[in-house]
Specification:
The protein is α+β, with helices and mostly antiparallel strands. It is built from 15 helices and 13 strands. Helix 5 packs across helix 11, helix 6 runs antiparallel to helix 9 and helix 11 packs across helix 13.
């Protein structure tokens, strides 16, 4: 099962050709940490750099980032945005409204803040978070203590804005209608079927709880989606299902370095196959640390210090594994280049 899942995740077997192909397979890549999302693409491709991801966001408009699924930022393809937005954001509205109230933004102020953001983007085009903060503050709407983040999230939940082009090292917000054009109507039943199909393509074998947790949807919706594609499924032991027609399973991948909030940790209720019985070495307080994978399992955490790879192994690593990780570390540094991607959690 571990080999099957790593193959589905593009961490084993043939790499993807470009960032869009990675997003197509994984469907949605958690992206509140910009560098983490870019490292997820590096781990599944060869020979690319962060410039290729930024080009897809800025020039090609083939990728975008917005609040989806569990209420956090995700990197998705242009084609997948309309139906994912329609499926996974309505249930986030109540929590967003509650957080706005907690930060001193009443419903009246929230509407005013949204109007300011939308008008500024319509009049001035792409604007960064800092630029939007200046305009919202000037209108007398609170922005401190994450208030701005939740205002921006509200505009995204309403389908009005997304995070699009890069402006230097920062990603700017844009209006959906200006950046992507008019969005198509979404058939909910077809969207649930597509969600089930696409989730399994990048995460199978899995079960209904895995999909519900990943998408942030109730089990009734997940069961409806899986039921709609039942003829395409293969039943597996333990209540798991997978797509019946799937490419051959690859061997376990060579040792490699994976970033923070790595997608391979976010698709299943149980992470024990990858992390063993002590997940706290990587996951603590809602943060997912960068880690090294060898023989299909986490063997160390890692960091970059003064441009050099520093490993914190969980146990003894063989000379071969250390050498392979050092080699991958050199590629990781090449991939990142001189670009320093800031980590803006949740915003």
């Amino acid at each position: 099962m571990l080999r099957e899942r790593l193959t589905a995740q593009l961490l084993a077997g043939e790499p993807a050709r470009d960032p869009v192909a990675v997003a197509e397979r994984l469907l949605a890549i958690q992206a509140q940490d910009p560098r983490g999302a870019r490292l997820a693409i590096r781990a599944r491709t060869t020979g690319l750099s962060v410039a290729d991801v930024d080009r897809a966001l800025t020039d090609d408009r083939s990728l975008l980032i917005t609040w989806l699924n569990r209420g956090t930022l995700h990197l998705v393809r242009l084609e997948d945005y309309p139906w994912l937005q329609a499926l996974t954001t309505p249930q986030l509205a109540a929590g967003n409204a509650r957080r706005l109230e907690q930060t001193g933004v009443t419903p009246r102020l929230a509407k005013k803040g949204v109007d300011v953001i939308v008008r500024a983007l319509a009049d001035e085009g792409p604007l960064t978070r800092r630029q939007l903060a200046e305009r919202v503050e000037a209108a007398g709407v609170p922005t401190k203590n994450q208030a701005l983040v939740h205002l921006l999230m509200l505009t995204a939940l309403q389908g009005q804005t997304i995070r699009g082009p890069m402006v230097g090292i920062h990603q700017a917000f844009v209006l959906v209608r200006d950046w992507l054009g008019e969005q198509p109507a979404v058939d909910r039943e077809r969207a649930l079927a597509e969600l089930a199909r696409r989730f399994l393509a990048g995460h199978g074998p899995a079960d209904e709880r895995d999909l519900a947790g990943w998408a942030g949807l109730p089990l009734r919706d997940v069961r409806a989606g899986l039921g709609a594609i039942a003829p395409e499924l293969e039943q597996r032991p333990g209540g798991l299902v997978d797509l019946a027609r799937r490419p051959p399973t690859a061997e376990l991948p060579p040792p490699k370095l994976l970033g923070v909030f790595e997608p391979v940790l976010l698709g299943w209720v149980s992470r024990e196959p990858l992390l063993g019985s002590d997940p706290a070495r990587i996951i603590a307080g809602g943060l997912f640390r960068a880690f090294a994978l060898a023989d299909g399992r986490a063997v160390a955490t890692w960091s970059l210090e003064e441009g050099k790879l520093v490993l914190q192994p969980f146990g003894r690593l063989s000379r071969e594994v250390r050498a392979a990780l050092a080699h991958d570390g050199a590629d990781l540094i090449r991939y990142l280049g001189a670009v320093s991607q800031p980590a803006h959690r949740n915003g």
